[in-house]
Amino acid sequence: MNYRIYPPEELTDVRIELPRSKSISNRALIINALTDGALPLENIAACDDTDVMVKALSSTGDSIDIGAAGTAMRFLTAYYSSLPGRTVTIDGSERMRHRPIRALVDALRDCGADIEYAGEEGYPPLRITGRILKGGDISLPASISSQYISALLMIAPKMEQGLTLTLDGGIISRPYITMTLSMMREWGIDSDFSGNIITIVPGKYSPVRFSVEADWSAASYWYEIAALSSIGISLGGLQQESYQGDSHVAGIFRNFGTITNFDGGTTILEPSPDMSPRLSVDMSEQPDLAQTVAVTCCMLGIPFRITGLSTLRIKETDRLEALRKELGKLSFTIAVEHDSELIWYGERHPVFEEPAIDTYDDHRMAMSFAPVAIYVPGLIVNNIEVVSKSYPGFWDDLRQAGFNLIEA
């Protein structure tokens, strides 16, 4: 289904109850599954990615289909590798079969895992025979996805020798690694993260009561709406002191004249006259915010250079190319450099047809472009179902804020 989106006819204040964090939920699910006598988790995210994880962890079959859920593919590959006596084949969507996983498989094999490629070398599907892993000292390029690193860390306490993981080079997405280690600490597992070396000794997770906080990534689209409009927005469920690196959206959006106030359990977005004339930012630690920030900059006429985006080539889609193409439909001439930088110098070109934004099976493309309707009433967003991956209620929340969504 496609939507034609119109902005609110009247600007009124709105309070949005945000979905729970899928990043925290997926880590909590794996850690809890590794915990003897685990207690039920509270407020798990209700979205495709966590639904896939819950279904996989409760499955007793020998075939697991994780669809387009990249986090599930990486976390479950490590998880099943550490289960002695369990043999499974993990497969996914056609796009998933083209998302590389060799670095994780090689690292797990170095720890003693039994993993075979059931299709193309270096890519899913994978045939995994679980065993007791020896662990020890291994190295990974620090520039790879933090999900590979987190997958290894969460099973490290079960390894005979624990794990000493050396990350070679500059670390990207560090907040996701520290999120994983902090959550492991909640379940009783200590670690040491000094320089580029992470050390985890053998141990057992202890049962705890754990409640998942709201999703700062989901909040970013409401920051975008606040920056592009005069709508008063209050967000429920966010924690000021958060595990999530995407909580830095509050600081980034100060550049766009949006300030953040915390009042108990409510986060209030308020306008400010201060706006940056241009933006230069390294988003290697918050790559999931790149689409929201790039679109916001363009609509506000703020030239930008966003660096640290090397992982965006292998997300749900090639997000760098998708942004270049779709922002081009709105007249913005975007450059991609070094496979890791997104740049707009302020150049625009003529547009001769009504823009319809393609979403490329990527939830963040749909949600980051939807607020553009404030400036381009009647904007069409295609394949709106993709938001179910992380924020199934997004369109309902947009209606609550006064937007008019018409099937196109």
Can I get a quick summary?
This protein is of the alpha/beta class and 408 residues long. Helix content is 29%, strand content 20%.
Number of strands: 20
Mean of the pLDDT scores? 95
How are strands sequenced across the largest beta sheet?
A: 18-19-1-20
Derived from helix and strand composition plus strand pairing, the structural class reads alpha/beta
What's the N-to-C terminus distance?
8 Å
What is the second-level CATH architecture of the largest domain?
Answer: Alpha-beta prism
Work out the radius of gyration.
21 Å
Proportion in β-strands: 15-25%
What is the overall silhouette? globular
CATH class of the largest domain, named Alpha Beta
How many separate helices? 12
| Largest sheet data | 4 strands, mixed
CATH homologous superfamily (4th level) name of the largest domain: Enolpyruvate transferase domain
CATH topology label of the largest domain? UDP-n-acetylglucosamine1-carboxyvinyl-transferase, Chain
Number of domains: 2
Low-confidence stretches: none
What portion of residues is helical? Answer: 25-40%
Description:
With 408 residues, the protein is α/β, with parallel strands linked by helices. The protein folds into 2 domains: 3-19 and 214-407, Enolpyruvate transferase domain (UDP-n-acetylglucosamine1-carboxyvinyl-transferase, Chain), CATH 3.65.10; 22-200, Enolpyruvate transferase domain (UDP-n-acetylglucosamine1-carboxyvinyl-transferase, Chain, Alpha-beta prism). Helix content is 29%, strand content 20%. It has 12 helices and 20 strands. It has helices at residues 22-33, 48-58, 70-81, 102-110, 146-155, 174-186, 216-228, 249-252, 290-300, 319-329, 363-369, 394-400, and strands spanning 3-6, 14-17, 63-65, 87-91, 114-117, 126-129, 136-141, 163-168, 192-194, 197-200, 233-236, 258-263, 266-271, 279-282, 304-307, 335-337, 341-344, 356-357, 379-381, 404-407. The strands form 5 sheets. Strands 18-19-1-20 form a 4-stranded mixed β-sheet, with helices on one face. A 4-stranded mixed β-sheet has the order 2-11-13-12, covered by helices on one side. Strands 3-4-6-5 form a 4-stranded mixed β-sheet, covered by helices on one side. Helix 3 (70-81) links the parallel strand 3 and strand 4 (87-91). Helix 3 (70-81) packs parallel to helix 5.
